[in-house]
Amino acid sequence: MSLPLVIDIALGVIFIYLILSLLASELHELLTTIMQWRADHLKRSIRLMLDGGGTASTVNNTDLDRLARNTDSLTERLYTHPLINTLNHQATGQMAVLMRKLSGGIVHVCYKFAAALYSIFGGKFAKNGATPHNPFAAQASAPSYIPADTFAQTVIETFELSKVGRLVTLSRLEEFKRQQLKEVLRQVKHLAFQESQDLATERLRQIARDYEQITLSFAEGKTPLYAVINQMEQTLAGFIQYCETFLSLEDAARPYFLYQLTYIRDKHYSEAEKPALIASLKPDLQEILTLVRDKRELFHELRNTITDTDSQVYKSLSAVLHNLPELPPSLQNSLSAIAANIKQRSGDLEEDLQSLQGEIESWFDKSMTRASGVYKRNARGIAILIGFLVAVVTNADTLFIVDSLSRDSVLRTTVAEFATSQVQSQVQFQTTPQTTPQTTPQTPAGVDRVNSATPEQLNAELDAIKDNVRQSLDDVSLPLGWDESILKLQTEDEWTVPMTDVPLPGVKRLAGWGISAIAISMGASFWYDLLRKVFGLKIGNSGGAGSSRDS
Asked: Cβ of 245: how many Cβ atoms within 10 Å?
């Protein structure tokens, strides 16, 4: 078999694959849009990530169902958060709404059918598999892409880690304030003169009111913790100065009283002790995650210190506890491991939460990288299924196509020329004029242009080829379809059982469909790029032969 013949057959086969791949890509894109496969895969990947990659097999069925419900509820909670929900851009207008309802109905029916099949065969062939259900039953659609920083911020805001940390700090600050006032009050009772006790007690009441304003400012987020401690130190120092000024010098207990006050101040507010005080008041990330997981413990810790049920602090506490979703143990373990990676702790909870957000972003990126690989494998499988469907519907039997092109010179020439014309219509082919005889074969200038196309150029040319697909099917008699003539030729050359004459009807055609399905799944871009290269090879071969003849 000569090289030009092989090239013409290759051009014909590749051109047919290109046409079928374009049809398959349109069908694939349509199904991807209607079924929202990208958004569905993203949502399932996020749910799997929240579930820690799957629940351990040691968990009993009751707990497994409860944990699955909690994870599903948390996933829906994250998706309804404004940061993620606003990523879901939908077209407006009556026609868009109608089409969305229609596609939603189709998707719902498909999932119902899948669930029915699972209920019949799932127990026999599937193990530990969840019943198929529409992930967008509650929400018509969802974003197909979520930035890592958006997801991390959504997680932190959903569990209100900043508010919980501030409330816990406020609770401990209230307890510290109460213990400090009691400690000072005990020292007041050691004063010998009643007048001194009255003066100190009255001033102590004013300190308590000042402390209340300081903690309220912290509760409202106006003052950071280190500033609160400094203000409390200054308030206590003012009380000591007041007592030094106004308490009677004749009171024998006055020196001891002032010494004890100075001791109390230095014990908590010295430069050496102040960092330890701030650290004891501020919960670390591990404590916050534990308290968020066990809301009952969180409520008891805060309720013991915030006794005024009419206060704004208590109302804020109740609102936070009411809105907190359930934190699955798997997610708590993941977040705890992430928090452990934060080596350096700052003195401010917000800075620690920013570090946590960065770690969650990294975790999300790594998880989505793995999910992207899974999606590509699944998409490849779906592409093969769609390719097989297209091959069956069009009766694209590769073995029959190759055989037809090799035997029918008219068909081979027609398809090859049509494929060549399609490439030439997209590539500005230029040949170098031969003014003098050449003794060395020269490569035409157009060959380099054919083989050096960029991906953007390939996509643009594919769009133009796509517009000519219908014309291609009408103008060229391709060896496709279910015509009686084609079926007759296919059945004339059936395979037989080895070493016998027993026919195997349909086996050869099925094998041809399988080869076509795999070829179609490789994509139109692949076949168009290959078509350009084979076309360039044909040009080079023709140019070389012509030059040799001239010589």
From this structure: 7
Q: Residue 381, class by beta-carbon neighbours within 10 Å (0-12 exposed, 13-18 middle, 19+ buried)?
A: exposed
Tokens 């899974």, residue located: 374
407-422 pLDDT, tens digit per residue, is 888 888 888 888 787 7
How many C-beta atoms lie closer than 10 Å to residue 186's C-beta? Answer: 10
Bridge partners, 503 (sequence order): 496
496 three-state secondary structure: strand
Say yes or no to pLDDT of 229 above 70.
yes
CA dist., res. 145 & res. 372, Å (int): 11
**244 residue type, one letter:** E
State pLDDT tens for residues 98-114: 655 666 666 666 666 66
Conformational region of residue 396, where left means phi above 0, alpha means psi within -120 to 50, and beta covers everything else: beta
Both tokens of 158, joined, read 């959903």
Domain limits, the chain: 3-25+382-550, 91-133, 160-324
In angstroms, the CA 514 to CA 385 distance is 10
- Residue in the structure block whose two tokens are 């944990």: 67
Q: Are 151 and 361 in contact (CB under 8 A)?
A: yes
User: What token pair was written down for 230?
Assistant: 């400094």
DSSP string for 447-487 = HHHHHT--HHHHHHHHHHHHHTHHHHHHHS--S-S--HHHH
Half-sphere exposure of residue 540, counting CA atoms within 13 Å on the CB side? 14
Q: For the whole model, what pTM was predicted?
A: 0.70
Q: Which two tokens stand for residue 318?
A: 């109740």
Residue with tokens 């409330």: 167
CA dist., res. 411 & res. 292, Å (int) = 73
Torsion angle, alpha carbons of 102, 104, 110, 112, to 10 = -120
Strands (E), 47-140: none
For the stretch 346-389, pLDDT in tens is: 556 677 788 888 889 999 999 999 998 988 888 889 999 999 99
